[in-house]
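To the team - alpha-L-arabinofuranose complex, inputs and output below.
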Amino acid sequence: MKAKITLAGELKIGEIDRRVFGSFIEHLGRAVYGGIYEPGHPMADENGLRMDVIKMINELGVPVVRYPGGNFVSGYNWEDGVGPLELRPARLELAWGVTEPNKFGTNEFMQWCKKANTAPMMAVNLGTRGPDEARALVEYCNHKSGSKYSDMRIAHGFKDPWDVKLWCLGNEMDGPWQMCAKTAEEYGRTANEAAKMMKWVDASIETVLCGSSSRYMNTFGEWEQKTLEIAYDNVDYVSLHQYYDNHRQDTASFLAKNLDLDDFIYSVICVCDYVKAKKRTKKQINLSFDEWNVWYHSNGAPVERWSVAPNQLEDIYNFEDALVAACMLITLLRHADRVKIACLAQLVNVIAPIFTKTGGGAFRQTIFYPFQAMSKYARGNALKPIIDCPKYDCKDFTDVPYLESVASYDEENEEIALFVVNRSMEEDVQLDISLLGFEDYKAVSFESMDGYNVLEENTFDNEKVKMHSNPLPVEDDKNIVANLKALSFNVIRFKK
Ligand code: AHR
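Output:
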């Protein structure tokens, strides 16, 4: 099959905010205990932080990590997780039916962020608790000294404030599964008052309002509208969450799920701008896509009630999941003008790109690789490629282009990166690449992930599903031609 992609410097979508390569650590399963934190592990540092895991996170390039939940945060008392370890209570954790030992909390997370070369994105409990505890946590984390909570932090051994810039106002507050779920009116008011007081404590912070838990909630759209109408002035972003599955084993539809994601993002932008128009304000609300991934392999796995750090949500990803993750990330970048934060959910063990054995090693899952490649090379402005390619129909969608693509243009370093997924299960694509106005640019690398069975997975012993290098695309005076394998994720880089 033949196709053509044209790139032009004029077709800028928007500057890529590095925070779109964020991720998420929740107190859930073995994300914290046995994941990032395991005192006594041979690779752990003096604070129990697993350095083998941190090394992989650094390879991934994750500038921001959301914490401590997720559903967990809606029942969390942050005070349980600070201060002397021996005084911290174990709690029944109602979101996931387990026991939370509270051996890891806010300060341990902040120390971990520093070691992992990332920034915290903290969530406050607006379920069982409210604005008062939220502003106290901002004071604990960000106020220098001379007040109850800042002095408490200092007494706990942390003289300097943590200076947390990004705060989520609760989690999925429209979901009946959430502790103290709320109506839009209830949540809008609570979030508004919390954000207002949190910003009074520290005017430099940014806040994220909970959008609907997914676009399939009955209240989707109306929830965003009502909550924004109440809280607009005190929030900076609205959140979106979306996970996809292939329960039906319909790969053609699964690979096209990001068409749904694209529509979802567009709808939320429309609601934000509707409220903006209604308020006659210049302030624009941007999007924080703070949970996205493939999630279904682990559904239904039994969990022993009230156990500590059980094997929960431990999806093992395959090759087609990696292609779907690549398409999702491409879609997020295609909205770089409005999607300023995004979190691959989650980071370690729990629906995650990194998988560990408690007491043992760690490996990179298939979804690790497209994320790593895009985090590394997507710099500067996102460019909208003009794509001319054949299309297909499947059960869930019609007119699915075989190619999914976005590019980035780093003006400063004179570098272009083109990211392309070939969804065709049968045919390679002979891709003609045209660089308009980039005449002096030459291809410098061509990496891809291809040649695997859709169900192939990585293991502790064999990370076989990964990126590999290819010969450079063939170039003459007029054309650059690259062969994109059937079912492939491709990264082609050009430099002046
Ligand atoms: O990421 C797993 C869970 O998915 C989170 O706790 C919740 O926010 C979402 O429903």
